[in-house]
Specification:
- The complex is a heterotrimer.
- Chain A is of the alpha+beta class.
- Chain A contains 4 helices and 3 strands, in the order αααβαββ.
- Chain A has 2 domains: 1-41; 46-129, no CATH class.
- The radius of gyration of chain A is 22 Å and the shape is elongated.
- The termini of chain A are far apart.
- Chain C is an all-alpha fold.
- Chain C starts with a helix and ends with a helix.
- The chains are: A alpha+beta, B mainly alpha, C mainly alpha.
- Chains in contact: A-C, B-C.
Chain lengths: 141, 87, 93
């Protein structure tokens, strides 16, 4: 599955670069895409997981414009915060890439790297300040 | 197709380009200057693409596309080197 | 028929997208001059460079040029590279 995606991506770049979809050019591009060295074999990836991740990365783009408008209109009131966010699913390089892309393209959040434990991201987020801790009138401890 | 109204747009883009140039020339933290330089690179490439559309001259457009697709790699390499020297 | 369609409908949309991209450029680059933290500036730079430039490239694509595959390639590489670049810069600093 991952090899198929790699070949398709290379073929797409080749076709866009040459702007020519005649059969002979298509075949040359396919040959080059297959013959270029592949990366290391990664562990097999369930296709529906990949599709879900791809879909959420694509829907993050309109979401990014909404957040851009929020940030530009109300940027003064936001404060910076460090969070850690777990990622779901297996640790595959492609999935981690898509997750980093999804987090970083939205202007309110930036991924800062993977925590040493390996199961979570550090995320830098601009968010409205937390409400101050309510003090109950009874002075309850 | 008329392209006359694109002239003020190019002027506006050049004006927006002046801001990161000012930041990069100012003495400051090296990371702020690196971010400003990356911003300059993207903005110049976009300006090249707009100019190539206006003048219908695709040699300029090719250079813009190349800068957009491989130009950031150099700055990324520089960021990694800087992190190495910071430690 | 085809050219009138392009003239009447697509050209205003393309102009509007280019203008919106320019507005995002100014709004996102202006905080670079301030004295906030580095990560705070990176949030704004993401608006200007990735989202604003993507709008402008979309506006150029809508003009239906001869060389549109080149512009599409530029759009793809701009979105992917600039996003990952923001991540690398944030995690290296």
């Amino acid at each position: 599955m991952a090899r198929l995606i790699t070949v398709a991506l290379r073929l797409l770049i080749w076709l866009l670069l040459s702007a020519d979809i005649t059969l002979i050019n298509f075949l040359i591009g396919l040959l080059v895409a297959v013959l270029l060295p592949m990366g290391r074999r990664s562990r097999p990836l369930p296709p529906q997981q990949l599709l879900a991740s791809l879909f959420s990365s694509l829907t993050a783009i309109p979401q990014a414009y909404v957040e851009a408008i929020q940030l530009l209109l109300g940027g003064k009131a936001l404060e910076e915060r460090l969070e850690s966010q777990r990622f779901m699913g297996p640790r595959s390089a492609l999935l981690v890439f898509l997750e980093v892309f999804r987090v970083t393209i939205t202007p309110l959040t930036i991924a800062l790297g993977i925590e040493p434990g390996g199961r979570a991201f550090r995320v830098h987020r601009l968010a409205p300040p937390l409400p101050p801790r309510q003090v109950l009138p009874g002075g309850e401890l | 197709m008329s392209t006359a109204w694109l002239e003020p747009l190019q002027l506006g883009m050049v004006a927006a380009l002046l801001l990161p140039i000012l930041v990069a020339c100012r003495n400051g933290d090296v990371w702020h200057r690196l971010a400003a330089l990356a911003s300059i690179s993207t903005k110049v490439a976009l300006l090249m693409l707009v100019v190539s559309v206006v003048r219908d001259d695709w040699m300029v457009g090719f250079v813009g596309v190349i800068v957009l697709s491989v130009g950031n790699a150099a700055v990324m390499l520089l960021a990694h080197l800087l992190r190495g020297t910071d430690r | 028929m085809n050219t009138t369609f392009v003239k009447t409908l697509l050209e205003p949309v393309s102009g509007l997208l280019l203008l919106a991209g320019l507005v995002l450029w100014f709004a996102g680059t202006w905080p670079l001059l301030g004295r906030r933290s580095f990560l705070h500036k990176l949030h704004y730079l993401g608006i200007a460079d990735t989202l604003g430039s993507a709008l402008m490239l979309l506006g150029l694509l809508l003009r239906l040029n001869r060389e549109w595959p080149l512009l599409l390639l530029a759009l793809l590489s701009l979105v992917v590279w600039n996003t990952i670049f923001g991540y690398v810069l944030a995690s290296c600093s």
